[in-house]
Amino acid sequence: MPKHGFIYTISTLLGLALGIIAGLVVTKFAGENPLHVLQVIIHSAFGSRYDLGLTLFYATPLIFCGLSVAMALNAGLFSIGAEGQLNIGALAAAAVGACLPNVPGILAPCLALLAAALAGGIWAWIPGWLRVVKGSHEVINTIMMNFIAYAFCGWIVRVYLQNPASQNPETKDMGAAYFIRAHDPIAHFFGDAPVSMAFPIALLIALLLWLFLEKTKLGFELKACGENEDAAKLAGIPVKRLRLLAMVLAGALAGWVALPEVLGNVGRYRIGFSADYGFIGIAVALLAQNNPLLVVPAGILFGALHKGAGDLDIETEHVTRDLSLIIQALVILSVSLSAYFPLWWMNRRKKP
Description:
Layout: H1 3-29, H2 34-46, H3 49-74, H4 82-99, H5 107-134, H6 138-161, H7 185-189, H8 198-215, H9 217-227, H10 229-234, H11 239-255, H12 258-266, H13 277-287, H14 292-308, H15 312-315, H16 323-338, H17 340-350
């Protein structure tokens, strides 16, 4: 690892630690013992096999969303549309499973995942095309696409796919072959926790994405678009085409949130199932510095905060589970500020 890369890593870890410490200090002013709050969070997130299973379950969609955001950021695009893309992808997977319930064997979940990737990719292609062809900023476009996705999913579910056996806004159940949990060794190991094979698959996808970005010519060209658009154009790299490809891949990755939620947990699409996974995925990607391998521990960290803070309502008097949001915000702020330390250090080294 280059020396400056090591400094960046140390700086990020320090920023992470300071963010968590700052969040715990806040609880002191609220009248709680910070060490007790930390103990509650850790025990709730990792205290038993079931708790760990829930933490990994929450981490899985965050990993997919973090990879989605990191994919776009590597190409110089700031997509905040993962929330809409994951909903469209999850609905597509559930619709395939409900409309084609008799697809046999392993073909069933593969078909559902293909539908989720295509739906999420197409949904991301729209703001991507507007960005590279019309020059519209992807931040505004992806925000609007999120709201359109919410309305579109609600309309499809209520008008065409509503589960007649439920008063909740959700689709009909998928065919049995689509539901991977029934034959999932990960799910059996963690008992009643909803974690599934989706978690190791997310780890594999993170590794494959890292290999793509770091070890292939196409990945190098895509990152060059993000590092310096003008230099990439001078080198003959098709910037517009690669940025559009990055957006489509980002949408497909977000759409694969269908794997842990629809195929690995409930077997249907439920309106409002996402605990803001798409937006927290932005924090995951930023904390990981857009490195797909680092997205994994960052996703587990935020998953642990989400799960661990759940017991604060019961175990403490003055703080609630909303503390996890405060800690997440402080972690993002401190890690962002820590990025300036390596720049200061390198500039200082250059001075005589």
